[in-house]
Design a protein that fits this description.
4 helices; about 180 residues; alpha+beta; six-stranded mixed sheet
Length: about 180
């Protein structure tokens, strides 16, 4: 749910002044509460994805990170994706990540699925996230959006639980689903 009034526009500076221990995202100046905490199953899926990425990338230039981490896409847009990978280490700041990660993974839950597959998909496309994955742990499928030369994602590639996914943003790194 948005914070306070729909006419209020928030910035990263506002966000930094909010109480610790609360999780929020700001999309185009609108604040969204990130509570309650995700389910145990949701967190397990995030952990498995992070583990696979960390094991494969630990000696290279790309750095995976698991939520909560602030990804500042603009002064009025701060998100906390479930898993991100950043290959340009200059984007990694003490307080989080400034700029578009190379890979973003959102694990869907009933309360966030529409926003993850709509608003956040559009947001990641607009800010140039090279590869965006949505993972549906209940229906057991993954959607992959790849940023094309024209700056759009187009239709997603679909993968099932028996598939392996070759990540285009990470030099073809393959992870089993």
């Amino acid at each position: 749910m948005p914070l306070v009034h729909p006419d209020d526009r928030f910035t990263y500076a506002d966000y930094l002044s909010w109480p610790e221990g609360e999780r929020w995202e700001i999309v185009d100046g609108e604040a969204f509460a990130m509570t309650p905490a995700p389910s145990f199953g949701h967190q397990r899926v995030i952990g498995r994805i992070y583990y696979l990425l960390e094991a494969a990338l630990h000696l290279g230039p790309c750095v995976p990170c698991v939520s909560p981490v602030d990804v500042v896409l603009a002064e009025d847009t701060v998100v906390q994706p479930d898993v991100v990978v950043v290959c340009d280490r200059s984007k990694i700041q003490p307080a989080g990540i400034r700029g578009a990660p190379d890979l973003v993974v959102e694990v869907l839950s009933p309360s966030t699925a529409l926003r993850d597959r709509g608003t956040k998909r559009d947001l990641y496309e607009r800010y140039g996230v090279r590869e965006y994955l949505t993972v549906d742990p209940v229906a057991r499928f993954t959607e992959r959006y790849l940023l094309r030369e024209d700056g759009t994602y187009g239709k997603p590639d679909l993968f099932g639980p028996e598939d392996s996914l070759r990540l285009a943003s990470l030099a073809g790194l393959e992870i089993p689903l």
